[in-house]
């Protein structure tokens, strides 16, 4: 299973990765080590973040929290070697109320644009308030069919489409 991938002893099949997170800082706290390893190994990475993290209680700094968190995400992405970051701007703390097919369509759009070979997501319960993107990891990249299977993970098939 281990191979050269793009380098660094990664599996050969890992050629491009899209990480899907709920809040700015999830890319660092939860996935930062792996994103940095991928980048250092020459694997292009992108991050889709569903919120601006404006409901955080970790503010403690002057300024608009939404703006501060966006700047922090951009800085973290540079440090981790992430090539692209996209924020969708859904209300922080309300992802459970978002239509699952809307979130899936946003992921699908970036899959179509970025053509990742793999998706990187949190496992069940990794981050509070992110029930719609958490759940048992799926063995393949397929559109969720309902709230019972709301996460994506593993290799992406070239024919994956929403709907």
Describe, in plain words, how this protein is organized in 3D.
The chain is of the alpha/beta class and 163 residues long. 27% of the residues lie in helices and 15% in strands. It has four helices and five strands. It has helices at residues 26-29, 32-40, 65-80, 100-114, and strands at residues 17-21, 45-51, 84-90, 118-120, 154-155. Strands 3-2-1-4-5 form a five-stranded mixed β-sheet, with helices on both faces. Helix 3 links the parallel strand 2 (45-51) and strand 3 (84-90). It is globular, with a radius of gyration of 15 Å.
In the sheet with the most strands, the strands line up as: 3-2-1-4-5
User: Strand tally, please?
Assistant: 5
Radius of gyration: 15 Å
Overall shape: globular
Helix content percent band: 25-40%
Q: From the helix content, strand content and strand pairing, which structural class follows?
A: alpha/beta
- If you average the pLDDT, what whole number results? 73
Number of helices: 4
Instruction: Please state roughly what percent of the residues sit in beta strands, choosing from under 5%, 5-15%, 15-25%, 25-35%, 35-45% or over 45%.
Output: 5-15%
Stretches with pLDDT under 50, minimum 5 residues: 1-5, 124-163
SSE arrangement, N to C:
EHHEHEHEE
End-to-end separation in angstroms reads: 32 Å
* Largest sheet: number of strands, sense, barrel closure: 5 strands, mixed
